[in-house]
Amino acid sequence: MIFTIKKGKARLVLKRWEGDEVLTLKQIHSSKVYLVKKPFVGSEGDGLITQEKGLKIGIRTADCVPLAFLGNKTVAVVHAGWRGLKEGIVEKTLEMLQSLEPLENFLVFIGPSAKACCYEVGEEFKESFKSLYYRNKSFYMDTQEEAMQRLIKGGIKHLYLYRACTICHHSLPSHRRDKTSERLLTYAELIP
User: Fold this and answer.
1) pTM over 0.90
2) CA–CA distances in Å: residue 4 to residues 37, 74, 78
């Protein structure tokens, strides 16, 4: 499985993680986002932004939402799980990107993740999230929808939503479904 989007000199690739030559972080389900310049010493966090041509930046997911931002001179990738969404990783990323180029330049890819068809959460999620559904006396969260609403509220006008739930689509890795260590890789780069 390989999925690609190109916008000008910016490119996104979604595929199975295979130890690729891509700069990634030790993901910790946070709101930490880094602006990457060469050389970059790896660290912990869940978002990378770069304006360096030819530098592939990526994140790995297996139920959390992968986001990729394709601008005219900037790309970014974000691992947005419920903890990161709650801590404001989307809003922090938009704030950082806005200082580099206008938000209207960006096409944002929202990748496959846990959705409300399968992702049961506790009642305490009502305090922090809008994309909750109540059925059979339980709450269910749509993480893609939550990320999308936050992006739109933050000023993003161009979105590409890859509508798939990682839990119920057995062709995609899901930690919740299988406790797998397999991951999807979402990476972005500015082509030289």
Assistant:
1) yes
2) 24, 17, 17
Could you check whether the bond before residue 39 is cis, i.e. omega within 30 degrees of 0? yes
Question: pLDDT value at position 27?
Answer: 97
Residue range of the domain that includes 23: 2-190
Number of domains in the chain: 1
Tokens representing 98 are 């806005």
| 8 A C-beta contact, residue 121 and residue 142 | no
| Residues found in the chain | 192
Task: Judge contact between 46 and 84, C-beta under 8 A.
Answer: yes
Handedness of CA 165, 71, 89, 38 (dihedral sign): positive
3-state secondary structure the chain: CEEEEEECCEEEEEEECCCCCCECCECCCCCCEEEECCCCCCCECCEEEECCECCCEEEEECCCEEEEEECCCCEEEEEECHHHHHHCHHHHHHHHHHCCCCHHHCEEEECCECCCCCCEECHHHHHCCCCEEEECCEEEECHHHHHHHHHHHCCCCEEEECCCECCCCCCCCCHHHHCCCCCEEEEEEECC
**Which CATH number characterizes residue 165's domain?**
3.60.140.10
Low pLDDT (below 50) residues in the chain = none
Of 73, 100, 97, 89, which is closest to residue 155 (Cα–Cα)?
97
